[in-house]
């Protein structure tokens, strides 16, 4: 999960872009034409920052990115050979060592930055209806669910209670204070698939994920025995979506799981007819925090090696799938940036720093460690890029920072025009792991991607290597590499 | 699964229809126009079988079908309130009693036809890689799988063996005779999703399902310890597809499971790199055969009550989902035919016989019993309809019987024109449960449906009520009801 919950700015900008598109289709009309002239003059072809030689080098990096099999091969190794990489797991450690070795092999200067991470381990997770309206003798019904990340366990033999369904906090507040006491409370907030189908998956995610995070506190405050949420995601294949939940330290920690959209619908239907009782068994364990690492690999700058541009993704993943779209893809794309520089022998003025962040899924502990360890050095961070929204076809770049960045980067969008990645969209957020840097004024960036399908697989067992289109993965690598080169080789750092 | 494996005839006919469509688009050209005239004259608007009053009654039944909430409500009860209905299970018995009571409530004459059925019960089913190329210390990898119907169990503690992958029987035959001895053999035959996307899902199914059925014998004949098949279906959501498998009584019965497409790809990739060992645990039980029933409900004919037209679907389902598309939908559509006759008070000349078949998924025992019980009465069966391909928008009718049936039914296709169900496609097969009647010369029929999505859900946990579009369900009910009325009220029975 790359973004937190404030989407107003991005929404406004997307709306603005849609308006631009509409304006473009009205180009025959005099009024619209004058608007277009204004836009064109704002974003003029060359802004004098980069030389023709530099622009040509960017074109070569872009083309090399599209031909390079490196990211795909690395991603398949991370997902197939190493597998799921939950923070604190043996595979997460294996991935740290593997990526460090690969970066060393490319000639980068590698540093293992120690951090501590949550160590939560999934256990048994089953749901079964034990009574419901219309139930026949000896009948059973399975409820497909998965524990939310960080959930406490039920008793090992399970807990059995009545299920109460609410569609929203408003519905919950309308119930009598004791209505959910001792019961299993399901928040049936729907993921808006129509928004996602229009490419606004993060908008849909932002709307629904608040319940995933807040459910245990909302339930515990009313005495619920456990909470369920409708899966936050777009799949219709009886597939539960996991993800981190949160506890209020002042309240009882109650077990929390995510049911599939189908099972939520079933519970809605049956509870509308009468009393429904369910047995819920979750046996996850929260072990002592574990040692782990951010993998940092510097491709040293030729003029200002102390100044850095970060290219990054997060190396940890959820445990149900193998973390291909979230976020092996981001790590692989960032690895490929170093591979392309190594292959071409280019050393830009400033250092390009690869980072494979640890524990993004469970609180971004790696990123917090980085921020603390580099607190005296923020001024030397001239830019930070993270890819953590999958590997769909990129249509441009999200940027967080001064509005001037948009015009400053215009030549880059032209270099990326052959792959269709021309949009430069100002956003408050670019990536969770670089949000601390963003907050301290470091210009930050993310590929802007076709996200129509991301939330079908996100945080599920189906987040596997086959979901990756190798060409689109390379398009993202082209975006990250060209942008990183531009930030690292400009005469002056990007405006901040 | 409604059809067996011979699809040549249907394919040829679909190709013919595509040619017709192409011809239609060339209608401006003289040559094509003359072809069209020929077709039009063959299928003239009225063939004199039914009166204008009867045609008007069909139109009223069609319109009433589209407005009726009965099928949807019944289907939701079967799937949500009763749940999975595996042969021999308590829920299958509950469904028998429920459907019989519903048919009695409509005024039909109900008969419970006793049959015996397989009683196979799914157990634990897990797959785990225990060693593979690139495996790190303490690493684990889950293989998502489900036992095939009828599979024997592994030892309770599982069996661990090397995995060998073959893409086809040809590949298997190319291996040395001992190559799979003691090993777990995966047949990686792909379900052709491109065929399915073109509406030829049954073609794709027919190609791949032979391995699902034949795998245990192929494996056992070479000494394999167990067999796996790549799931026969189109889903890309880490969803295993179950379905019946077969044993050769001359050979050792070895455990058989279906892995997801993703897990098959993983095994292909890892075995291409070196040795892969897997622990497979399946604990299904094959219990003694159980008593069960076909539910038969006669809506008595006014002139020839001894002559019958069957409307049907199968009541049993696989156990992973709740059997909505396979085949609660078929049962509900057939129930609605009786509901519409009951509501309208129409009693056609002949009896319309509702049948909810039992045990289609595990060998069609119910249908075999029916055939044996009614062997002296086949001549009185003037037609049989089964819906067992989901509830997608119907584009016409499959028919098995004399070629004259096509012209004979032309007025029916005109009545169904407002819902787009105009195609009359001759097929060798219509439905598994009515194939015995077909073989004995009874004209048989099935709705011809948009099957692009059926095999995404077929035999999986995701075959649930939400997959049903209520309007399309009603369109199918319109097809079945109008056709049944036409067969039951024609002056003479359909040509046979």
From TrEMBL, chains A, B:
GO terms for cellular component: extracellular region; lysosome. Residues 1-27 form the signal peptide. Pfam families: Peptidase_M28. The keyword Secreted applies. Gene3D superfamilies: 3.50.30.30, Zn peptidases. GO terms for molecular function: aminopeptidase activity; carboxypeptidase activity; metal ion binding; metallodipeptidase activity. Keywords: Aminopeptidase, Carboxypeptidase, Endoplasmic reticulum, Glycoprotein, Golgi apparatus, Hydrolase, Lysosome, Metal-binding, Metalloprotease, Protease, Secreted, Signal, Zinc, Zymogen. Its main location: endoplasmic reticulum. This is Carboxypeptidase Q. The lineage of its organism: Bacteria, Pseudomonadati, Acidobacteriota, Terriglobia, Terriglobales.
